Hints:
Layout: E1 30-35, E2 55-67, E3 73-83, E4 87-88, E5 91-98, E6 101-108, E7 119-122, E8 129-132, E9 134-143, E10 150-153, E11 170-178, E12 181-189, E13 194-201, E14 208-214, E15 222-223, E16 232-236, E17 259-263, E18 270-271, E19 288-300, E20 303-314, E21 321-329, E22 337-340, H1 350-353, E23 366-373, E24 377-384, E25 388-395
Amino acid sequence: MQDHRGAQRRDPPPERHGADGADGAPPFPTDRLVVTPDMIDLARSPLARSFAAETYVLGAFNPALTVLPNGNLLLLVRVAEALREPVFDGQVHAIRWEAETYVLDGWPLDLADTADPRKFMLPGGGWKIMALTSLSWLLPVEVSPDGLELVAIHYDRAIAPAGSWQCYGLEDARISRVDGRYWMTTCSVSPERHSTTLYSSADAFDWTFEGIVLDHQNKDMLIFEGLIGGKFWAQTRPLGDLYFAYPPGSEWRAGPAIQLASSPDCRHWQPHLEPGIRPHAGTVATARMGGGAPPILTEVAGRRGWLTLWHGVEPKEIVGIYRTYWSLLDPEDPAKVLATGEAPLIEANPALTAPLEALMYLRDVVFTTGIVDAGDHFIVASGEADLACRITHVPKAAFVAG
């Protein structure tokens, strides 16, 4: 069945409750997967018919979330499309955009480290060189105002690589609505640079490419949903292989942290002098951190401010344990933290992914990417296990400062 946008309608997936809490009840009344890999029709993928090798959906996850003009919600889902058999002819292969089509590149298998199913490492001149086992593109999925029922999958509005600066794909979109216009950041991946790219739209369907806004590796740029002092503000998370140590006895741990930047036009950004949210030295649960959902102005824990949901990563095996935490930032000075929760707000939920066990390749990962204020609760969108899209209704009463 087709809707007025030519999108495919699908029946909603069955409700799946979360894992039991200490009292035997789910941690939140509503907690389910709403988009799973089997729902994606690769015959309508931007990659379709580009090459003979078979592909499959490695994951449909990490969705941006926003409210559409018609009142429905939009999930902009990252579809990681991977080769079914990446190894052949003694080489391991990756997909790359090239001149309006997609091609396969091969590297000698004996030179590649394939321990992580999402990527493989290649020898370099003293630094890390990586290639991906999949190419990601963005798929708009329209859902009901509560986020729980599928309305339409808009394949005709998919966002795919359009230049050499994103020839290995677009990842992990975030959408913010500021003064009636939608702004979307994405991570664009290429050998040229690992950059943050910006798009804008009047309706969250027709997007205008605004260019590269951060010209260095930065996985989590989140634009605040509102101006502060007449300026756009954003959380950023610059990455590197070297961090300088804090003094002995400091409460902070060196490593990736959430920083801040401001802009007069949302296109040209200046880093803020004061740091944002940093890892605490007293715990390894947030040894690595980064932004999750774009900050929204609301009231929790008895105070009004910018609510930011962010991820903390505890080291474990290759990927680590990803959990969602929250902080409330000062309405006028987002470098000031008014309140924060010490316990995780959302954790990976094995009960949700149990029906998808045959597709699992990661554990202990929840990656929150969007939030909508729904009155007495928040609608929170996350990627679960780098596999599926999860919607959780989080009561405002759950936000208790530590």
